[in-house]
Amino acid sequence: MVKSEVHKCDVVIVGGGGAGLRAAIAIGQTNPALKVALVSKVYPMRSHTVSAEGGAAAVTKENDSFDDHCMDTIGGSDWLADQDVVEFFVKQAPAEMIQLEHWGCPWSREPSGKIAVRPFGGMKIERTWYAADKTGFHMLHALYQTSLKYDNLINYDEWFATKILIENGRCQGVTALELRSGQLRVIAAKAVILCTGGAGRVFPFTTNGAIKTGDGMAMAYRVGVPLKDMEFVQYHPTGLPGTGILITEAARGEGGILVNKDGYRYLQDYDLGKPLDVNDPLHPVKKTMELGPRDRLSQAFMKELEKGRVLSGPYGEYVHLDLRHLGEKKIDKKIPFVRELSTKYAGIDPVYDPIPVRPVAHYFMGGVDTNIRTATRLPGLFAAGEVASVTINGANRLGSNSLTELLVFGAQSGQAATEFAIEHPDLDFTALEKQGADEQERITKNFIRKNGGYERVATLRQEMTKTMESGAGIYRSEKSLKETCDKLAELRDRFSNVMIEDRSLAFNTELTSALELDFMLDVAQAIAHSALARTESRGSHQRTDYPKRNDERFLSHSLVFRTDGAPRIEYKDVTITRWPPAERVYGR
Amino acid sequence: MEETIELEIFRYRPDQEDRPTFQTYEIPFRKDWVVLDAINYIKDQIDGTLSYRWSCRMGVCGSCGMMVNGVPKLTCATFLKDYYPDKIRVEPLAGFPVERDLVIVMDDFIHKLKEIKPWIIRREGEEKPIEEGEYLQSPAELAEYKQYSMCINCMLCYAACPVYALDNTFVGPAAIALAQRYNMDSRDQGREQREEIIASNEGIWECTFVGECSVACPKSVDPAGAIQRAKVGSTIDWYKDLLMPWGGKKR
Fold first, then answer.
1. Is residue A65 part of a domain?
2. Tens digit of pLDDT for each residue in A199-221?
3. Within a 10 A sphere around the Cβ of B22, how many other Cβ atoms?
4. Which residues in chain A have Cβ-Cβ distances shorter than 8 Å to B47?
5. B43 touches chain A (CB under 8 A)
6. What ipTM did this prediction achieve?
7. Cα–Cα distances in Å, from A581 out to A71, A89, A575?
8. Domain limits for position A491
9. pLDDT digits (tens, 9 = 90+) for B31-78
10. Cβ distance A208 to A387 under 8 Å?
11. Is B120 within 8 Å of A104 when comparing Cβ atoms?
């Protein structure tokens, strides 16, 4: 038996995006004696946090309050957020944002030198900090660069985590494939933090980069940790047709409008308020029209499509995001990346022409079930960021809460994992080494030295994304979801015949695509089955056969458990503190 | 008949081949495809063994830099139509060891990145407590360094740099631009610490100011400009040291 190399550390963080880096720095600041391994399948600055554009929310202005931010978030979540967690989040947010300012993030400023804030969808008062429209990029680089000063942090760049290791009933590390050598290693740790992001790539049309394949969600799911609220997937209302490239909500925050093929601001027909003229000094009105929440805007598009009032192009139907009235100066100052992306990828200069946009799969509200301290039910396993469901986002996340979430809960996970690691010093290296050898054998046998496979990774992946869109997209029904569940079961079956032509050990991306597809099939099944079981409509989860919210039965989080057959679904109550469920009201 | 285009792609698997080869693929030509779309098409439909890095496909993650017809490019932002109907040659970024196919080894840059101390350095005791809020920074002060903060670490400037090609001890364009980004940030007080690296033999003085880095940069960071400014700053420091040894170094 080939022994696998064991790397020993105190805490291993899987994923080097915003949450993972914030967790790493939290440990570096408070416990520099702890050895921290940051395992990432890409160099950290490639992580998908880099693509976030619009901004990060925190109460900033005199006329704003924690309660207002809580209320916006809870209403936005369609009352599925845990209110104690939201309160904690909102209170921690400003300090985290200031901390990032101290670490050099180039936030946009007022003439006075103070931080500037902009309005965002579903928010009553402007509280979104921004770095022009490359906020995620600047946050990620500031965090990565800052993390480099901590010598107790060891970067395992381009190491692909494959499995969570459990011994004596607690999490004791992960196995990871070193991409350069193709060797599987054990990284033994007293605590593990998952920060691997979401899984937008289970959908065909997504803002998400290629790396967002739900690895951490699936790894947790496979060791018995449930995924929570997986049926809630956010469609961002404004992506470029074809590529799915995101056009930030900040474009609407700065005053951009959505119009249908007749040039009509159709959102007024969907209970989102009345439009003001674009030249009215009060435009855009917060929590109204174009500044409504993302779920409602994406749903309004689908209704317009049904009415035949949208435009049509080579990449399907679309509407127009019109920024022309903002003028070149404002566009270049506030949203220059929007201009760059539209010009380059859609051939449209928004200074002169409206941008074609359509809803696009963007963000997972659901994820690994954790408590407020980011702990999962598996001792020693923590999760933060999009991979986790903690939960502040409920059935629909408000734009600009996710970047702040990375910071607040990234830091929290670093602290919680540190405490756990100190209290649990013993690791069973012999057993871990054995597990590593078993995992190496599984990957060799099922993939890299497998004979007789005939299913192409790309074919299976395309069939998966297609069925997710047709059956588990913006609108769902029992019929569509059952078809998707059946199709996914078939694909899971066919996956056992996957073909790997690439026999090289060095940087074998055919192998990693197969492992990613394996993870995504688990995540896709979790979504489809959770959506089938929730026979109501709430936030981003819209059932055509159950169009109403049903608080009596479903004011609760779904928990999906992996079994050998169809996933098992359970529910647990939402924590309500001061904001009893009510109607979601926008624009009136 | 469907229009097609040929891509000639650099292949190298270190555990299977002694030397690199080129492999030609014929794929459908689509006007709105970028080179990365073409490579993804090859990977998905023709040859699953081709390896390369990519993720965001919107020019911000910095993963997909390659040589396209000998020029360093972000392949997600390089359109086939600009080459059609000619064959396109795709190679790994020049000046780096090759890990596999189109994947370069970038350990050297990661090492240099850390060396230039790319974080805010405050003098002992001058760290502002979080409770006291943000450091004030006027839009003009932000504008001083903003351009240099736009680097996505895509490595195109290193691939373009004639000095780095000959001598990889040179700190290089992106790392120097980043050092300059922090040096010029009104919140930072660490310029002297970075000077050890930046003004060393391997630092700014190696640059012969060919300016190829700024031509290659897809984000208009202008590393050549950053290096020139660093040279001027360093020279002033040197004169101050010489003429005013008692206190020329204010920062």
1. yes
2. 999 999 999 999 999 999 999 99
3. 13
4. 501
5. yes
6. 0.96
7. 11, 20, 11
8. 436-573
9. 999 999 999 999 999 999 999 999 999 999 999 999 999 999 999 999
10. no
11. yes
Half-sphere CA count of A270, side-chain side, radius 13 A? 23
Give me the residues of chain A with pLDDT under 70, please. Answer: 1-3
Query: Which residues lie below 8 Å from residue A545, measured CB to CB, with a gap of 6+?
Result: A477, A478, A479, A535
Do A76 and A181 share a structural domain? Answer: yes
- Give the chain A residue whose CA is nearest to the CA of B45: A458
CB-CB under 8 Å, A345 with B58: yes
Residue A345: list chain B partners with CB under 8 A. Answer: 58
Is A48 tagged catalytic?
A: no
The chain B residue lying nearest A247, using CA atoms, is: B58
Interatomic CA distance for residues A518 and A525, integer angstroms: 11
Residue B29 falls inside a structural domain: yes
Active-site option among A22, A46, A138, A236 = A236
Residue A29 lies in a domain: yes
**Length in residues, chain A:** 588
> Tokens 């229009």 belong to which residue?
B3
Q: Which residues in chain A are closer than 8 Å to B135, comparing Cβ atoms?
A: 101-102
* Residue among A115, A146, A211 minimizing CB distance to B55: A211
How is residue A220 written in tokens?
A: 């947790």
| φ/ψ of residue A411, rounded to 5 | -60, -45
Chain A touched by B1 (CB under 8 Å): no
- Chain B residues lying within 8 Å of A243, measured CB to CB: 57-58
CA distance A310 to A354: 14
**B138 to A113: CB separation less than 8 angstroms, yes or no:** yes
Q: Are residues A194 and A315 in the same domain?
A: no
Residue B207 lies in a domain: yes
CA closest to A512 among chain B residues: B51
Backbone angles phi, psi at B58, to 5 degrees: -135, 25
Residue B112 has pLDDT above 80, yes or no: yes
Q: How far is A574 from chain B (nearest CA, A)?
A: 33
B9 CB contacts (<8 Å, ≥6 apart)? B22, B23, B24, B25, B39, B42, B50, B89, B90, B91, B101, B102
Q: By three-state DSSP, how is residue B206 classified?
A: helix
Minimum-distance CB partner of A504 among B15, B59, B130: B15
Instruction: Check whether the bond before A44 is cis (ω within 30° of 0).
Output: no
Q: How many domains does chain A have?
A: 3
Cβ A409 vs Cβ A388: under 8 Å? yes
Q: Are A93 and A69 in contact (CB under 8 A)?
A: yes
Residue after which a domain boundary falls, among A336, A360, A384: A360
**Residue (of A545, A528, A527) closest to A536 by Cα position:** A545
Chain A CB contacts of B101 under 8 Å are: 507
- pLDDT computed for residue B248 by the predictor: 42
Phi and psi of A483, rounded to 5°? -60, -45
A252 tagged catalytic: yes
